[in-house]
Amino acid sequence: MIKKLISVFLVLFCLSAFAYSSGQKATTEPKGPVVLSLFSFKAAPHEEKALIGVINGFMDEYPGIKVEYEVISHQSGYDDVLRTRFAGGTMSDIVMSTPGAFGDLWDSGYLEPLNGEDFLSRYPSTTLDNVTREGNVYAIITETAAAGMWYNSKVLDELNLDYPSSFSQFLDVCKALKNAGYIPFFAGEGGGGGAKFFSVPWAYKNIASSEGFPEFAKKVNSGETQFGEVFREPFKAYLTLISKGYRYDPLNTVNAQLGGEGITTLAGGNAIFMPGGSWYAGKFDAAMGKENLDIKLGPFMFDDKNYVGVVANGYVSIYSGSKKKEAAMKFLEYWSRREVMDAYAGELSSFSPLEGGAVPTHPRLQTIARTYKAGDITVWQYPVPLDIGNPWSFLNPIVQNMVLESKDPTTAVERAIKAINMEAKKNLDLK
Amino acid sequence: MNNITTLSKLTIKRDFLPYFWLIVPALLVYLTFFLYPVMSSFLYSFTNFNGFNLNYDFRGLKNYKVLFGDPVFRQSITHTFVFGILVVVFQNLIALFFAIALNKNFVSKNLLRTLLFMPVMISPVIVGYIWQFIYSTNGLLNYLLSNMFNRSFHVNYLSDGRTALIAVVITHVWIWIGYSATIYLANLQNISSELIENADLEGCSSWNRFRYIIWPLLAPATTVSVSLSVGGSLRVFDIIYVMTGGGPGYATETIATFMVKAMQKNYFGYAASSAVVLLILVLLATFIINRYLRGREIDL
Q: What is the tens place of the pLDDT at every residue in A271-308?
């Protein structure tokens, strides 16, 4: 009996202590600054440094608001944590997303519309199209990454070859390089591989110059137009490079990564051209050895002229469940200021997404910056909603298969187009 | 009659309840971490759940309809079974060979047993990376082949659609041989030495001794090892994901890698339907094989 009484007493004691502590927490909420939380996937050291720069600048200007940030890389499962926190209602006030996840976040009602905010006028409307749904803007864009052709300018200079300004000229340059004993072109299809980098901006350029993205999207979403058809021209061009023997492939590595083996190959002087993005600039800096090479990023050479492939990335939104939306909006306004955005994007070797924003100062990116400034730009993420899913994410195995079957280029291209159409139909069925 | 019922209830309460409370913790873990996820996956497979939004819609059998109309999924079923059959056959044959060899008395047998079992203890991710180097163009395999045949080999076995699946099978078998060999070895050590000696005295050849005495007596180990390898190989994910990611193209796509890729595209409901198909296939395959092997044990 005594034991039972002691047990009951102990249980009551624990419960009362718990209730007291909970009550204490509710009544003694610290009356300090507003604390904003920010969740980002920008986890590489230089990215985190750039993010801290924005946060510190903001806190200097708004001493009453404290920003606490958390970064998890995509490789460490950023999207999984994002899903769990949104579903559990524990998301940070400010959240960063990629083009791949943005649509689902919006569709689930997790993002606060930013309409009516003056700072949105600092962005080109074409950039804001990426984050506009049903007439409302749901994020700011914090960087514009560029893609084109990395090339060894020293070899071109030595052979008196100009940077090609169309695909036919590119073939001529490749021929001249091959005749001079060089391997013109590196191609690896691992991850975001060469065929994808090369073909997607070309296909999207064709859409932009014909009926435009919204109209084409309508037709694709309704099943009236087959999405794969736009890839016929760039796929054929890409396989021409392979069939003419211009591809560096002693390793026979269809799984090779541009950002891995590709950089090593170019930095080692073993190939002259390679498709890739502006974010490889730092990797090339690190990879350059004793070889006296000059690796730069130039624009893509498509059928008619040169284009820079761009992607609006690093979408920053306010969580619709946040209790600190006013402070969060101030943070987005601050980040959208020219000097802040230019500094942030520059740190990432990206272009500022603002109207007339700065181009990166990195010496390897100056060739592409000239084309960018001239306005010869094409996108490589479809800029308006597509119900067929994100082509950038489902193209990998399809283009890998195409390159594997490249001994018969015509069949390989047709099979790839058919596979894209089937994937698009499947995704429409699942929508 | 009433008294008997009361008595039996009391007996149940007295005899059963203490044991029941003992299994409650394990039961709770099982219900929470196995049964609940399986049942919820089954329910999600009928929805358009995207991993973000809990307000999903039920869409009947549409996910399954799309799934079986998807050529990549059909391909992944074929790859899963090809992978499973090759792994089960080679893993068990080679393990049996090693188990018999290591059942002899010689000086370094304990060291060799440890070495054989070692791959099981290494993370499949690490093993995958090691074998990527072995299979690479300038890797160990090409080096050995070049020296053996006196001509240069420059094949990247994981980048070639014709060799990638076989290459991953070899790695998977390499990992799990030690595990199966241990099971066979344990069974071999329980076979009476008198039986073997008698067979030797009767002039039984080595092959006949294996065929008519050892192999039938290894039935229990065969059941366990084959069942485990069937389940393990059909569910394979980690080693394939690390080594090829399901590629090149779809050359090594299995149901498990297909499922994870669907999740990465935020098609959680669709991924759940492929998980249900995988579960059913694994259960069916294990059931059929177990039934056959158990029958063999009873015949014994």
A: 999 999 998 988 898 887 656 688 999 999 998 889 99
Enumerate the residues of chain A whose CB falls inside 8 A of the CB of residue B70: 422, 426
Shared domain for A269 and A331, answered yes or no, is no
| Signed CA dihedral, B164, B167, B171, B172: sign only | positive
Whether A145 contacts A278, CB under 8 Å: yes
Is residue B267's pLDDT more than 80?
yes
Of B66, B72, B244, the CB nearest to A430: B66
Domain residue ranges of chain B, discontinuous segments joined by +: 1-39, 45-299
Q: B247 at the A interface (CB within 8 A)? A: yes
For residues A298 and A164, the answer to whether their CB atoms sit within 8 Å is no
Cα separation of A293 and B70, whole Å?
47
Distance (Å) from the C-alpha of residue A87 to the closest C-alpha of chain B?
A: 6
- The domain of A61 spans 34-144+312-364
Q: Give pLDDT tens digits for A300-338.
A: 999 888 999 998 889 999 999 999 999 999 999 999 999
| Residues of chain A positioned with their CB less than 8 A from the CB of B65 | 429
Say yes or no for a CB contact (<8 Å) between A110 and B52.
yes
* A379 in the same domain as A230: yes
For domain B45-299, give the CATH superfamily.
MetI-like (1.10.3720.10)
Q: What residues of B are in contact with residue A390 (Cβ under 8 Å)? A: 265
Provide DSSP, A315-367: EEEEBTT-S-HHHHHHHHHHHTSHHHHHHHHHHTT-B--STTPPPP--GGGHH
Give domain status of residue A10, yes or no. no
Number of residue pairs across A and B with CB atoms under 8 Å?
A: 93
Q: Give the nearest partner residue to A400 out of B70, B72, B248, using CB atoms.
A: B248
Determine the Cα–Cα distance for residues A134 and A294; give it in Å rounded to an integer: 46
Asked if residue A150 and residue A137 are part of one domain, the reply reads: no
* Reported ipTM exceeds the 0.90 cut: no
B220 touches chain A (CB under 8 A): no
Total structural domains within chain A = 2
- Does the beta-carbon distance from A83 to B55 stay under 8 Å? no
CB contact under 8 A, A401 and B250: yes
- What are the E-state strand segments in A176-251? 185-186, 247-248
Asked if residues A287 and A263 have their Cβ atoms less than 8 Å apart, the reply is yes
On whether both A339 and A404 belong to a single domain, the answer is no
pLDDT of residue A289: 67
Q: What is the pLDDT of residues A110-149, one digit of tens each?
A: 999 998 889 999 999 888 988 999 889 999 999 998 999 9
Query: Do A319 and A394 fall within a single domain?
Result: no
B131 vs A: CB within 8 A? no
Three-state DSSP state, A124: coil
Please indicate, yes or no, if residue A12 is contained in any of the structural domains.
no
Taking CB atoms and an 8 Å limit, are A107 and B53 in contact across chains?
A: yes
Range with the poorest average pLDDT among A227-231, B118-122, B195-199: B195-199
CATH number of the domain that A261 lies in? Answer: 3.40.190.10
CA distance B275 to chain A (A): 16
Residue A85 pLDDT greater than 90, yes or no: no
Whether residue A264 sits in one domain with residue A191: yes
- Is residue A319 domain-shared with residue A182, that is, in the same domain? no
Interhelix angle for B164-189 vs B109-121, to 10°? 130
Residues A39 and A83 in one domain: yes
